[in-house]
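Thread: Alanine--tRNA ligase, structure

OP (GT): Posting the sequence first so everyone is looking at the same thing. Length is 867 residues per the record. Can we get the structure tokens written out before standup tomorrow? I want them in the notebook alongside the other entries.
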Amino acid sequence: MTSQEIRQKFLDYFKSKGHLIVPSAPIVLKDDPTLMFSNSGMTQFKDFFLGYKTPTAPRIADTQKCLRVSGKHNDLDDVGRDTYHHTMFEMLGNWSFGDYFKKDAIAFAWELLTEVYGIPKENLYVTIFEGDASENLERDQDAYDFWKSHISEDRIINGNKKDNFWEMGESGPCGPCSEIHVDLRTEEEKAKVSGLELVNNDHPQVVEVWNLVFMEFNRKADKTLEKLPAQHVDTGMGFERLCMALQGKSSNYDTDVFTPLIAKVEKLSGKKYTGILEDEKDIAIRVVVDHIRAVSFAIADGQLPSNGGAGYVIRRILRRGISYSYRFLGMKEPFLYKLVAVLQEQMGAFFPELEKQGKLVSEVIKSEEESFLRTIENGLIRVEKLIQQTIANNAKVLPTEEVFELYDTYGFPDDLTRIIAEEKGLTIDEEGFKQALNEQKKRSKADSAQKVYDWVTLEEKPENFVGYDQFESQTYITRYRKVENKDGEFYQVVLSESPFYPEGGGQVGDKGTLENAVESFEVLETKKENGLIISLINGLPKDAGAVFYAKVNVSERKNSQANHSVTHLLHEALREVLGTHVEQKGSFVGPDYLRFDFSHFNKMTEEELALVENKVNAKIKENIALQEFRNIPIREALDRGAMALFGEKYGDNVRMIQFGTSMELCGGTHVKSTSEIGHFKIISESSAAAGIRRIEAISGDKAEEYFKNLEKQVAELSQLLKSKDVVRSIEKLMEENATLRAEVDAMKKEKAKGEIGEWKGAYEQKGDKLLLVKRTSLDAGSVKDIIFQLKKEIPTSITVILSDADGKPMITVGVSDDLAGIYQAGALIKDLAKEIQGGGGGNPGFATAGGKNLDGLENAYQKALNL
């Protein structure tokens, strides 16, 4: 069976058992503050388990894209070094929401594996939860009894809490689970050692293939367990492992899930894959084909590589793949992006986002490859300098501070530094590096640390968002919880009637007040979590059950919703001007400005920007009324022409916002008619990433303020220039300035010529080399010209010039070409720059540094004399 057939058989089987087949949710989570990525099949159904939302059907089945690279579930370091760990993987799952439970879940699993897929029964083992006295949890006798009717009792294994009690995170839905393991060894191997001894012992051919979770508890923040309102089934079967079992392979990487990608890597790199676990070349190929899947799906779902949050994780995965291919496959040029087409061919039919976003995914990956390969090349130069400096100091260990700086600041892989150092007979301080890394992690964790207490529920009542229609409402608190972070102690509250819009869809959450006759609290932010609208306030009411008035900060909300509405008009205008390939790739909508990221591969021209701006303002002037469809079937909305964004998870019913011909699925707040926007002004257009452009703009009050400031500046300039024709006056000034600059440059060159003649005779003999250390007030350009002239004319020389031009300290070092292999200008400048509290760099023959401490030039002068 091919992998496509295996996936389809799973879905067909559960469809025959009355399950609704649903598409995979995006791999990137945008509305769950507890997770960056879908790390299991159950993530998109979490609200159903907690009772916050009603399931679309009592039985559901799907295959979910998952990513495990951070937090509790982190498989990144194992990827490539064994046969079955992955960053991105598919999780086949069937779900029951208060419908069937253990008996049917076990029966379905057994029938599918043994009768539909035909796995020999004698190759299967199952585990059940053995209980845990510390949690007052008993052995899962029900699961044991149900399994007895399918499998011999000697193949039912007791499992501990670590292996057989499933928890998604520190808190949330959880419960006992029953794993199904398959023994893929040869008959000869099975005769030597029973599979019973190898279950859950990390044997590469005795692996867990399916986990049946019986969700019946909720783990609270205080670590206690409480019963969920209903019993649910949550199962997850590793698609890649299932393919390994059904295709008779001993490694996931030998299945047709990966072999087309491996074949492409072989062709591009000229390296042959042998499947040897310890072979660094084979490890690198496994890393590459795994990581390209993770990165491609994340980008297709809207997460671009970046320096923070989920984007940083994606960049880290991609850079790990580039690093391995650079070191062990000899790939010095971008090539991972060429694998995207293979992935599209393999998976595009089932995951259409790969087909739709393929060009963008390829361009982003190629750009990231080019950037990181430059980082590696520059890092190699830095490492070489560091090694030379270490050898010159008669040391054997590279300085920890510099090694960590290479890793942390410049993104250079620490293991590559280690390998290069070992080739030169040096080492790095492993413990010191680990300590520096841990300290950085602690600092990062401390900055974002937040302690969240359990909810105190005052009333079990559905919360109602009224913010589409009103800015304030009478309300009361239905639940609250305490939150502690570095800024102090706060409280999150859920209101029975909330006018506060929760952050989402790019729009910032509302601020405002929560008050009554006795007390008043500031609403600092509003977010959504697990279907609840949560407002953060700066204290706890004395009477939490009292009636309050919730009031939105109206001016900020009005500005935000004007900016949000204008993003819809902007999106439409961009598609009209640039083409229908334009799609929104991210946005920020706040009261002061808007940011809009979109797919486009060229910088926009001034003419294009002006045309887009004019089109948007024309729509504003038309005073187009808002048409809002709050609860429309998604199919009907799409048929009407509504734009749906890739990477977003939509329900069966959606909210559609329409301004004339502009139609989008959107949950944000909007103006009642376009005239309320006032005016739209583009402030900047730039690159956000490869294939992604970014527009920053303003509207409404901020646009009016912008033009008033421009008017004021023109008036002030006119007064300064004593002319109403400001443009012509500035042109005249520029012409005069250019003439004067040319005269000054000529004078500087004449002065520099005189200096060169004097300096040539000022070199001191230092052994078999010449050294010149000179103080001057010449500017940087003149100093550079002189040093390059002296380097040519004075062999075996080092020149150090210390300048105080314009009252700013600057040091310049030149090393003649015949000494560049012995002395490094960059290393010398780094040491001297410490005296002026500065830094800089350059190449082996020339380097400069600026600083803050002018008085330090004297110390630098004395230090340079002793080179």
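GT: Both are above now. Quick notes for whoever picks this up: Residues 821 and 844 are 8 Å apart (CA to CA). The chain has 24 helices and 36 strands.
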